[in-house]
């Protein structure tokens, strides 16, 4: 698990390898990740959007930008946690992801970015 705290918002990420498959003679590796966002600040905040960078071992970088996470824009009161699962496909058995969430603080209506720490994606079975 990796964690990072930005302005009192802790982002924790666990990853797991889900399997591989072939489509149109290309190999794909499926990875899942579980993200927990905990509000350790004294203010109520809401997640508005996300911006991810996905890197694979073949030197390919993809950016994913969108509103909310898995169709939700969670509001987090002090002490609350929002957890969700998602995933990605890579054309290599190794990679990494990082990025940020854009959030709004309801106390002052200010928007701010919460960093998502870099986490590794690894199909460890290919090492043997």
Automatic annotation (TrEMBL):
GO terms under biological process: error-free translesion synthesis
Transmembrane regions: none
A Pfam entry, by short name: DUF525
Xref: PROSITE patterns: APAG
Location of the ApaG domain: 3-128
Top-level lineage group: Bacteria
NCBIfam families per the UniProt record, alphabetical: PRK05461.1
Protein name (record): ApaG domain-containing protein
Organism annotation: Leeuwenhoekiella aestuarii
């Amino acid at each position: 698990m990796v964690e990072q705290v930005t302005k009192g918002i802790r982002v924790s990420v666990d990853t797991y390898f889900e399997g591989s498959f072939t489509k149109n003679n290309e190999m794909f590796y499926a990875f899942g990740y579980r993200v927990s966002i905990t509000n350790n600040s004294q203010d109520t905040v809401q997640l508005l959007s996300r911006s991810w960078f996905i890197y694979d071992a073949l030197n390919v970088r993809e950016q994913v930008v969108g509103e909310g996470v898995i169709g939700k824009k969670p509001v987090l009161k002090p002490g609350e946690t929002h957890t969700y699962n998602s995933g990605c496909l890579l054309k290599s058995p190794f990679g990494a992801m990082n990025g940020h969430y854009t959030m709004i603080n309801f106390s002052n209506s200010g928007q701010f970015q919460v960093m998502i720490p870099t986490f590794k994606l690894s199909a460890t079975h290919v090492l043997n």
